[in-house]
Design brief:
Layout (H helix, E strand, L loop, with lengths): L1 H11 L2 H18 L3 H17 L4 H27 L7 E10 L7 E7 L4 E8 L8 E4 L10 H10 L3 E7 L3 E4 L5 H19 L2 H12 L6 H14 L9 H15 L6 H18 L4 H19 L5 H15 L7 H31 L3
Parallel strand pairs: 3-5
Antiparallel strand pairs: 1-2, 1-4, 2-3, 4-6
Length: 365
């Protein structure tokens, strides 16, 4: 029985899975604020680890470290947002991002950051001549911090601590840098979309922008007219860009690059470089970030000649995403994206391990 359990537990629970679970539990514990929960979680973790890994102290330490890392990362991120303050008087800040919202009442949005680290959104009705990277001074902004916890967590997930709404946002530009990589990337994407829009029909451009560029907000009206047909067939989720659309681009590039007389290493480096540029020049979503991380880790394993384990690669992507932004754990897009992908990777893992596992446990081979 003891031998069976020692084989069955790692068959069902790979070590990397335990790291992700403990990291998520640490984030949940830190978000709940109930100190008694730490006792039960640590007691359960120690019981499980002592039962399964009683001779593997480093692995036990890493699992407990994952729990503490999750709790610490959430507390640190939340403290940064809550403690950040906007200085009184005229607001001086740097424009980090500008985008469309798809909302007819407030169609444009700017993301700004002050010198003391206060990040906030500015929603406006009219587009101005501001550019990314501009250091501006605004005198008529009334920035509010949200009191409602769900909306506050959403803003924290987006990396901001407050919002402001103004009819026409036209501040004084104090300084405009001669070069900004973020501004260059935004201008390249915007100019490319303008050219494609002139050459495509309205519906074709709407689908292209939504599926492959990830800009669904600017073509929201056109997409909404076609959405009922997708809902009728049960494929409405295909209207949002995900890892599937990234893979379609990669497959196309792979076919084209395979025709070039390059070595395997150069072909791999070229397609990786194209994917990085595609990632930089288009808007991000959590499913797109997850797919991009998996692709990069796969290519890294191929270049370094490491064994590819999908479930371990997915767990690494899970850990990196939550360490960088632990608030993602509480939102449905993150949960569904990683949960569905993990189920597929886990089923493949179980299928690979099933035959050796049954032979070893039932026949003693």
């Amino acid at each position: 029985m003891k031998q069976f359990l020692s084989e069955f537990v790692p068959f069902i629970f790979p070590p990397s899975f335990l790291y992700t679970i403990c990291l998520a539990l640490g984030i949940i514990y830190s978000a709940s604020g109930h100190s008694i929960g730490l006792f039960f979680l640590c007691a359960f973790g120690l019981m499980l680890l002592c039962f399964k890994f009683k001779k593997n102290v480093p692995l036990c330490s890493l699992v407990l470290l994952s729990f503490l890392l999750g709790a610490t990362s959430f507390y640190h991120k939340k403290s940064l947002f809550i403690k950040s303050k906007l200085e009184l008087g005229p607001c001086q800040a740097t424009i980090l991002e500008q985008s469309t919202t798809g909302n007819p009442h407030w169609p444009h949005r700017f993301r700004l950051a002050t010198k003391n680290g206060f990040h906030f959104f500015v929603y406006t009705k009219q587009w101005s001549s501001l550019a990314i990277g501009d250091y501006i001074e605004a005198r008529n902004l009334k920035i509010k911090k949200p009191n409602e916890s769900d909306f506050r967590n959403y803003l924290f997930k987006e990396g901001v601590a407050g919002t402001a709404f103004i009819q026409f946002f036209d501040p004084i530009v104090i300084k405009r840098p001669s070069y900004s990589f973020t501004r260059w990337a935004y201008q390249v994407t915007t100019n490319a979309l303008k050219k494609l829009k002139r050459k495509m029909s309205r519906s074709t451009f709407a689908f292209f922008s939504s599926l492959f560029i990830g800009d669904k907000k600017s073509v929201k009206k056109t997409i909404e007219t076609q959405a009922p047909l997708f809902k009728e067939w049960g494929i409405a989720h295909h209207l949002a860009r995900s890892g599937l659309h990234l893979m379609l681009f990669i497959i196309l590039w792979q076919l084209l690059i395979s025709l070039l007389p390059f070595s395997f290493f150069l072909k791999t480096a070229l397609i990786t470089l194209l994917s990085v540029f595609y990632f930089i020049l288009t808007p991000w979503s959590i499913s797109f970030i997850r797919a991009f991380q998996l692709f990069i880790f796969y290519k890294l394993c191929i270049i370094l000649d490491w064994q590819i384990n999908p479930i371990n690669i997915l767990c690494v992507a899970f850990l990196l995403t939550l360490i960088y932004n632990p608030f993602q754990l509480f939102f449905l897009d993150f949960q569904l994206s990683f949960y569905c992908t993990f189920c597929l990777a886990w089923l493949a893992h179980l299928n690979r391990q099933k035959r050796p596992f049954l032979s070893k446990t039932l026949f003693g081979e």
